[in-house]
Amino acid sequence: MNRRRVLETAFVGAASLLGVSRSATATSVCDSDALGVARRRTYDELAVGSVAPAHGGGYVLVNRGDSHPSPEVPVRVAVVDERGTVRQRREIALDVPEDARRANADVIRTEGGYAVATGSWFARLDADLSLEATGFASGYEPNGTTRLVELADGFTVAAELDRPNHVSVRVLGFDGDGEFRWSRSYGEENSKWLDFLLPDSDGGVVVGGRKPWLAGVAPDGTERWQTTVADAPPEVGYDATRDDEEFVLFGGSNALGLTESRSVEWRRSYDSLANASGGVLARTTDGGYLLAGLVALDRIGVVAADAEGRPCWSHEYEVVGDGAAYLADVVERAPGESLVVGSRRKGQNGWSMALSGAGTPTARTSTASSATTERRTASTDASETRATSTEATETQTSSTVPGFGVGAALLGTAGGLLARGATPSDGDDR
């Protein structure tokens, strides 16, 4: 979500994703057809809003904000193993104003553990999820997106305040012990949305969002630069990533590549995401990108693209279960293997979907195309497919950790993991 920041996955090159043999996967998302669904998980009372690599393998998840906050709704952090099963969890009660409980949360991995932020509240956890330090910036009560980055001598939190007819952003600096040090505001006169916060190469951060705008902020809160991208679709900027001093921005059905001077180097539009809302982006180990958006209330569209945004393939995936979904993030687990996470629009349940080149989805032929402002490349058309496999019965099971139920589903042989002869390595999947 992310998204929004450089999500350094420490697992690239690992032998497996969720029990899948590396020999069954492709070396690149662009070297294969559309990825198939290897496994789905649901998480009771954990509406996933952010994901990061966990210590010891797997992922750490944190719940999104609650649209109807109350003191009884804590920040929920869970560590899941490589099969998606909850192995550890922590609930943190917030002694902060109501709006701070409404803000979405973000989680990152640190050298010794994790850090979590929601609104202007910040916490540092050890690898066992024990609370080490907290901080709170009073006088500002964000109620929207939150983004978090670790710097050499502390942490930077960006938080969004969404008011009627106006949206603003506050960037907050904390030291490693949670002491509040500085703040900087954006959008006080003209609305600015917060969608991403990225570390830069000079020890600071780059903050920005849709109706694309970007600003560079030094570790002490000093602004280095600020820019907007002219003639860009307004949804571009829902997510971004940085490679050296170049940026890729994405949202809806469009992506932009920016140079070091933040001028537009290339533009892409993806027909397969024409009806998509929002958007999340992940850099892949082959130098390309995975781009995902909601194309229907219960369906996600994914495009795999090369380093200049040209599509390799596109595919739609149904989020199985009752009700509509939110899309929180997409991350690459290893070459040809990815994880998509999100939550239900109603309630506090979350979901994850592991994608792998081990399975070939049942085809539904369509076309994904890409265009630039200077030229249209005929060779960028790619076949689109959609999974229509029969699902196996989803069996609800209890996690070994109280308070977090977890369900799992395996697809059937037509497009699922079992089509290649892989079998679950433990008894938690039915």
TrEMBL record:
Chain intervals for the UniProt region annotation (Disordered): 350-404
UniProt superkingdom: Archaea
Ranges of Low complexity composition bias in the record: 356-372, 379-400
Protein name (Swiss-Prot/TrEMBL): PGF-CTERM sorting domain-containing protein
